[in-house]
Amino acid sequence: MNALVLDLDLPVSLDDLERRPWNREATHQLFDGLEFRVLRDRLLEALPNEDEVVPEGGFDLEAARLEPGELAGWLAEHAAGDRTGVDIIGHWGSGTGDITALSLAAADGAAAYVRGGRARR
Q1: Beta 118-119 vs 96-106: how paired, if at all?
Q2: Residue 14 carries which DSSP code?
Q3: Where are the domains of the chain?
Q4: Taking CA 42 as the corner, what is the angle to CA 47 and CA 4, rounded to the nearest 5 degrees?
């Protein structure tokens, strides 16, 4: 059996233990030097930077189903210079695969869906 020490004075208060933003660059440098790839992935998953946290509550998108030849125009109009979410439905392996569909969501609230075809090297 193990008995816990119950009367140890610690030089910190509860306020000192509050979660604070962390220095991401210093952490990356340290983990690179120690070759902690898996630990880094776990840390990034568990403790994202505050500026990376997406507020809960969802968002509205204005969706369009694009026909062949319309994707380049949609990208030029909605995805220029900002982040765009991409989701691919299909499978890939050994340099070949099938893309059944491609979904896009742009920062301006526009979304698009494109039916796919066969992809090759």
Answers
A1: antiparallel
A2: T
A3: 20-52, 62-119
A4: 80
Helix or strand or coil: residue 103?
A: strand
How many alpha carbons fall within 13 Å on the CB side of residue 70? 12
CB 40 within 8 Å of CB 88: no
Specify the DSSP class assigned to residue 3: P
CA distance 117 to 121: 14
Query: What is the chain's pLDDT, residue by residue, as a tens digit (121 residues)?
Result: 778 888 888 888 888 888 777 788 888 888 888 888 888 888 877 776 655 555 555 667 778 899 888 988 998 888 877 788 888 888 877 778 888 888 898 888 889 988 875 544 4
Assessment of whether the complete model's pTM goes beyond 0.90:
no
Closest CA to 71 of 114, 34, 29: 114
HSE value, Cβ hemisphere, 13 Å, CA-based, for 27: 14
Four-residue CA torsion sign, 63, 66, 71, 73 = negative
Q: Which two tokens stand for residue 82?
A: 């900002």
